[in-house]
Amino acid sequence: MSTIEIRKVESRRDLNKFIAFPNKLFKDVPTYLPPLNRDERALLTDKNPSLEHCDLQTYLALRDGVVVGRVAAIINHSVNEHWNKKAVRFGWFDFIEDFDVCKALFDKVVEYGKSKGMTEIEGPFGFTDMDKECWVIEGFDARQNLSTLYNPEYYIKFIERLGCIIKCRWQQYKMPASQPIPDKVARINELILQRYNLKLLRFKKRKEVYPYARKFFHTLNDAFKDLYDFVPMTDKEIDVYIKEYFPFVNLDFVNFVVDKDDNLVAFGLSIPSLTEAYKKANGHLFPFGWYHLLRGLRKYDTIDLLLNGVHPDWQKRGVHSIYYAEMNRNAIKNNVTWAYTNPQIIGNEAEKIWGTTYQTEPLMKRAIFGKEI
Question: Looking at the domain covering 4-170, what would its CATH class be?
Answer without folding.
Answer: alpha beta
